[in-house]
Every structure is written in structure tokens, then in C-alpha cells.
Amino acid sequence: MRGTRVHAAILIAFISCSAAGQTGPPQDTQKPKVHGIDCQAPDPPAAGSTLYQDKVDGFEFMYPSFLHSDDSSLVFDDGPCSKSFHPNEVIVFRISLPPAYEEPEAVRFGEKDTSVETQVVNRLKWVKYSSRGQADDCTFSNHEQVCIHGGAIPNGGELSPALVKAMQEMESTFAFTVASSRLDARIAAVKAGDRFGSLTVRRVVTMAMEDRNPKRGYSGTYGEIYFTGSLKLVGSIENDGTMHSALWEFFPDGEDGSQTTVDLKLPFDPGKELLDRIEFKGGLDVGERMAKLPPSPNGTAAEQPVTIVVRNIAAIFNPGAGQSVVRADLVSMVPNY
Questions:
Q1: Model pTM score
Q2: DSSP state, 31?
Q3: Beta-carbon count within 10 A of 80 CB
Q4: CA geometry: angle at 307 spanning 247 and 288, to 5°?
């Protein structure tokens, strides 16, 4: 399912040329060979340190340059050929937005022999949890908690010295940036009545509003923006749920260049691909609508191009690598085949 994919595209191009009256040797029509990574003669590991800046979540730190990280997540490993870390070891940044500091989930539901130590590093208080084969080092500021987790999956033996050293460098250089530039502050700057294309802001829910409303319950988001108006989009609808619990989602076209993905065009860059998928609110009848579509050339209506109109759009902004969500009501749907 595309709902759980990492947002990256791999383009494989096959180029052939022909011309009327052309002479010469026949063209090689074999597919290009794909060569794997040669770990017998790997490139030497990069030296020095690299700066990581997270402008959405509002922090920065340095990490050893030999580490590799996916741009869409805060997971660091030592690459396919390096043997600096033990097998399957990674460093993961976990970001949450609790009203006050709380023990990380891995500690609350993990091993009982966890040791706890508190240190002040680079003017920040770090609570360091450690047990055999894993470590969680956490700090907290202005309703944002960052935990650096190190370990292997499945859990192994003692942590490798390289991983421990890398975590120490991350902590010693870690700093929260100016809170006014963080995503929740930029969401708070949006006001009801602001217009963005065909959409008008109806309501803005901020972290501060959630704190003052105990009945609502804190959802752990940077904020929520609700819109009036409607959008017409081209893409496909898929069920990313289970056979017992459907979760119908819409994916706008754009990967093949045939249709430009529509953007909410907010007055800031939320750091998320907001409309790369839309969940349907009250969408219990989406499956019934899909079943009524005429047969497609591929024999099924699922994952086939459709044009939809949505309204009552809500954007919910989650922290860290957690994907922000757009929810909307499905007004109409017609096939594009």
C-alpha cells in the first residue's frame, strides 16, 4: 500500500532511438544491468561531522559524517558496508509533544532492569535510560520531548563503541532552536478568515488551546487547521486498512508528471507533503462507491484514476517523522477511464 511507503520515487529510463532510413548496426535492446553495492571494496567512511537542522521540529545537532540517514525520517545507521556498528544497530530520534516530561514508551513498557542517570549536557538536562543492548537519552523543552534511542532490532548484546560515541556527539551538540520558528508557532499565526486559493480557514487549534481545554484531551499535535471550501483533485483511492477495518485514502497524481499535486499553499512550509494522501472522514460508504464504478481496463476499480471533490478539509500536524494528516469529506467521485 502506498499509505505506508517511504516518499521516494525510483525512475528507470529505457531510451531507444530510431529514424526513417537510418543505417548501421542494430541497436542493443537489452535492459541495462543493475549493479549492486560492492562491499568488497567500499568507499572509505566519511570523516568529520555533519550538521542536521530540523526547522519543523525546532532543533539541530551534529552527527558523525559516516552515518547515513533517510531524509524522511530521523533514523541513522552506518551504511550497507560499514562495520562500525554491530549488526542491525541504529540510532533513532523520537519526538513527542507532551505537556510535561514523561518517560519514553520504550522504558515504560520495556525491561525492568533499566538504569537511570541524569546529566546536564550543553546546558540541557538529559535523562539517560540504559539496559542491556539499548539506550534512551531524553531531553525536554517548551512542550517538546526528544529521545535519542540506540540499539539493535532484534535486541542484541552490548552497544557498539561507535554507536555510543555517535550518541554522545549528538547530545553534546544538540540545541533547541528559537521556539517562535517552530511549526506550532507558525500554525498559531494563521487566523480564521485567511484565504488560501479556494479554501478559507474556519478554525485553528493550537497547542496552547489544547492545554486550556482539559475536556478535549491533548492529542500531541503541533496544531490543526480547518477549512471551508472544496477542492477538485485527480488521483486514485485505495484501502489502506484491514479486511475488518477499512481505511480509504486518496493519493493525488503527480509522480509521473501527468498531474501536478495540489498544495494547500499555507503561508509557511510545514515540512510535510500535506496532500500526498487524504483520509476520508465519515467515509463508510467509500467502498460502496468504489464498487459501483464501471470496470476499468485492468479489471478493477481499485487504484485506478478518479476525479474527486472534497470539502470540510482538516490538516493535522504531527511531530517528527509522524506523517501529518489531511482529512476531508468525499463529495463526489467519477472514474477517469
A1: 0.74
A2: P
A3: 10
A4: 45
Nearest-CA neighbor of 150 among 227, 86, 214, 194? 86
- DSSP designation for 269: -
Domain ranges of the chain: 46-179, 183-335
Q: Which three three-digit cell numbers place residue 237?
A: 483511492
Alpha carbon 225 to chain centroid distance?
A: 19
As a residue count, the chain comes to 337
Indicate the fold that domain 46-179 takes in CATH.
Answer: Protein Transport Mog1p; Chain A (3.40.1000)
Asked whether the bond before 252 is cis by omega within 30 degrees of 0, the reply is no
**Per-block average pLDDT, block size 10, for the chain (337 residues)?**
31 23 40 56 78 90 90 82 87 90 75 85 94 91 93 82 96 90 86 86 85 62 90 84 74 53 49 66 74 71 76 88 80 85
> Containing H/E element for 211?
helix 207-211
What are the backbone angles phi and psi of residue 164, rounded to the nearest 5°? -60, -45
